[in-house]
Amino acid sequence: MSTPDRIEELLSATKSAFMSGALVRLKLGGYHGSEPDLKSIEVKKITVKDGDKFSFTYRYKTRDIIKNFIQPEALALLRSGLKDEFRSAQLATTEFDMGFERNGAKMRLKRTEVSGREAPSTDHNRAKNRPLTVTDKPWLKALGIAGKDGVVRNDAQDKFRQINKMVEIFAPLIHAIKTERPLIVDMGAGKGYLDFALYDYLANVANRPAGIVGVEMREQLVSDGNSTAQQSGFDGLSFQAGTIMDFDASGADAVIALHACDTATDDAIFKGINAGAALIAVAPCCHKQIRRQMEAGQPDGRLEVMLRHGIFLERQAEMVTDTLRALLLELNGYKTKVFEFVSDAHTPKNNLIVAEKDGRLGRDRDAVLKQIAEIKTMFGIEQHYLEGLLGL
Ligand SMILES: C[S@@+](CC[C@H](N)C(=O)[O-])C[C@H]1O[C@@H](n2cnc3c(N)ncnc32)[C@H](O)[C@@H]1O
């Protein structure tokens, strides 16, 4: 059989399974296309208001993106993906599996019969993969997101979307941690929105149990959080009163801090580094420490034209603070990325620094230290608070 026919054979089997309700999933792997960090695509059938669709979950290194397509669009996308970008695919149906492999122009397709397998329900299939579709939950009510009737309140729709988004971002990051039951510490947990949502998702949807501890200095929030966790039956979620610096984070696999104020973010990073956490993820809040130093110090004269405008000074302080944080993480064996994690329509404080420990310093240590020194000189900074914590 000529090579392109293998693709058509797989697509035809996928289409028939889709139409007969026998499709379990089609997974495309071995990606070698041009999209950075795309790993695989998982395709399922879903039934939405306007009919049956192919639901594509694009799995990136740190997040998933879901897009739904009508049949002709989906098949065209699959066809070109299999031809050019993906080296392998696994089709699972209720009756048989098909494994596809492409090596240059050579293609192989292997069919194996299976029995006793059921197709997943397609109704709200996408919603089922999300943590917060069942909204009649004690924690959503306690946090004021759902009303007494268990339905998301109109004025909490934005918050609800944000929480969903955070879980979409954090779940794959937690998933990548090798520990069987990772310990996640959320520094400056506040009311614990992220903790409840993530715990619920990991325990009840993703079947990836984790322990979560929220550290918070406001005692009332801690006691409210603990009673809601108890009411929800979330045995592995607890809140502890105290400061980030006083918390013993040893044994933490992930240290997270969302909008912990100013240098509290650095306290969290420091605790994560000291614990050797596999993941450190922080969404910084205000950047006062570096802003004050830029105002008091002597930045490069050429920057004066920018820094005399308060708003630009603020933005520069944010970029400089977080660039230095990323470099200091790199210096400690973390591979670091910075990206926007919720739309800036929700909050202007929407950058997330994600650092994953790989133990290696990607570059020469002296080169990183030199870069840190140069940035500090350029912006008139004496010392980043995190440098002090790290004894630099
Ligand atoms: C802006 S809130 C964010 C809460 C939560 N992370 C969220 O995103 O919804 C910051 C929280 O961090 C707490 N916090 C700030 N500095 C802290 C510290 N050094 N130790 C413990 N908690 C701290 C504050 O009390 C506050 O509840």
Automatic annotation (TrEMBL):
GO terms for biological process: methylation. InterPro entries: Methyltranfer_dom, SAM-dependent_MTases_sf. Residues 158-293 form the Methyltransferase domain. Residues 110-130 are annotated as: Disordered. It holds the Pfam family Methyltransf_32. One of its GO terms (molecular function) is methyltransferase activity. Keywords: Methyltransferase, Transferase. Residues 110-126 have a biased composition (Basic and acidic residues). GO terms for cellular component: cytoplasm. This is SAM-dependent methyltransferase. The lineage of its organism: Bacteria, Pseudomonadati, Pseudomonadota, Alphaproteobacteria, Hyphomicrobiales.
